[in-house]
Amino acid sequence: MHLKRVIPCLDVDAGRVVKGTNFVGLRDAGDPVELAARYDAEGADELVFLDITATSDGRGTIVDLARRAADEVFVPFTIGGGIRTVEDAQAVLDAGADKVAVNSAAVARPELLTEMADRFGSQCVVMAIDAKGVPGTTRGAAWSVGDLREEDLVEGDPWEVFVAGGRKPTGRGAVAWAREAVERGAGEILLTSMDGDGTTSGYDLPLTRAIAEAVPVPVIASGGAGTLDHLVEALEAGADAALAASIFHFRTFSIAEAKERIAAAGIGVRPYRDPAI
Amino acid sequence: MSAARAQDHDTTGTGTAPAGAEDPDVVAAEAADGPRPRLVVVDYGVGNRRSVEKALERAGADAVVTDDRATIAAADGLVLCGVGAFLEGARRLRESGLDEVVKDRVADGTPLLGVCLGMQLLFDRSDERGGAAGLGLLPGPVQGLTPALGLKLPHIGWNSVTWSEGTRSPLRAGLPDGAAFYHVHSFVARPEDPADVVARGDYGSPFVTAVSRGRVHGAQFHPEKSSTDGLRVLRGFAVACTR
């Protein structure tokens, strides 16, 4: 049976995990590979490392990160952040990453997705989309497109794609862009709600549902996880995976607890097995 | 559709020492108790060799990636990994002469584990892109996965397996039904002899995901990407290589 996934996300700046972590027993809670190996042992199905290093001279660390992670992490992992060319992607994949996530560079030059899919296969190509709702949308309470002002819609969509770490609007609708990205070669969508990110008040379910229905590839829901029920809601909305950072970093919940809750909701998920058994 | 461009799984890696020895990694701890078999990941230029090497080491083996005939001749067991197209993998094996080297060692009774494309190459032939001959160590063809309507190809992700009743394959390694493994593939082996089937997954319909026949073993999934349970499968193979 195909199983849905729980994915911890690690934001990395100049080689260090930057969202706060509250791990006991790690020699160095800021080391992304040590944290990733711990998540693997605790039942993570996959890992995402997002390099948010602002300066280009700190960027070389991303290949080193992939290399170290490949030696110590025995689940698939994706690396994103600052990937601009096929050569960038090649270096990260050669170092041992299973997939590469692209964002701004593919918005600026969508052909990049095709070039990457032709070279590596679409299963290696993750399109990261940062989306923000137009006025009138909410992440929870019911609304319909008909309630929104026509001039607020972006390419007819109630969500707009942002790039540059969420600072720059693109004029692209999230649904339209997701469709195009997949047609061009993306094998998976990493969908982050900018309205939800950091709030711990739940994923953007209408957004998740809309994208999952629009594309034939798996969607990873991101942005807003605060409770285990939020993970369940995202998977029920059509996401193939639920991504979270702070609830795991701060030990609010363990990955095992997340798995138990998801399974209890009747969703197929890889059972956590104590590595000591 | 874009998925048509997808290739079977490709990972490589290079790197450093394992994580802290204080980690509660019982797979490694168990491994430390027994002899460490010397395994060779046969290097024919295809696939996620480094990831497999690192996982074998974590599972309690001494592993090396090489095409050196003398090293292969001295190995306690061989691993054939690989990704991508069957035709290309079969061609590289044949042109390197490693196909005969591997078959000679198998004839001597050396355990062999094929992973992903490496498992498919154990079989007689594949229908992929017009067809090609495999190593012929296991009877049966490799054919396209036929998922139910609405399921995508390649099949990518975690899939829970059902073990064949009474299987004595070392790959099972004591794991229960429902153990899940990470898959990336569009083709599957269809063993002629049902007794060779060790485990099946289900992607709309059942498919064979682990096989054993004598000392020849295969995993369609990626044990090196399947966390603790994947390491257990590799541990099972490593232990079989010490006997």
Features:
heterodimer, A: 277 residues, alpha/beta, TIM Barrel, 8-stranded parallel β-barrel, B: 243 residues, Rossmann fold, 8-stranded mixed beta sheet, 4-stranded mixed beta sheet, hydrolase (chain B)
Q: Can you lay out the helices and strands and say which pair or pack?
A:
The complex is a heterodimer of chains A (277) and B (243).
Chain A: E1 5-13, E2 16-17, H1 32-41, E3 47-51, H2 61-72, E4 77-80, H3 86-94, E5 99-102, H4 104-108, H5 111-120, E6 125-133, E7 159-163, E8 168-173, H6 174-184, E9 188-193, H7 205-214, E10 219-222, H8 228-236, E11 241-244, H9 246-249, H10 255-264
Parallel strand pairs in A: 1-3, 1-11, 3-4, 4-5, 5-6, 6-9, 9-10, 10-11
Antiparallel strand pairs in A: 1-2, 6-7, 7-8
Helix pairs in contact in A: 1-2, 2-3, 8-10
Chain B: H1 26-33, E1 38-42, H2 49-58, E2 62-66, H3 69-74, E3 77-80, H4 86-96, H5 98-107, E4 112-115, H6 117-120, E5 123-126, E6 132-133, E7 138-144, E8 155-160, E9 162-163, E10 180-185, E11 187-189, E12 197-202, E13 206-213, E14 216-219, H7 227-240
Parallel strand pairs in B: 1-2, 1-3, 3-4, 4-14, 5-7
Antiparallel strand pairs in B: 5-6, 7-11, 8-10, 9-12, 12-13, 13-14
Quick synopsis:
Chain A: This is imidazole glycerol-phosphate synthase. The complex is a heterodimer of chains A (277) and B (243). Chain A is α/β, with parallel strands linked by helices.
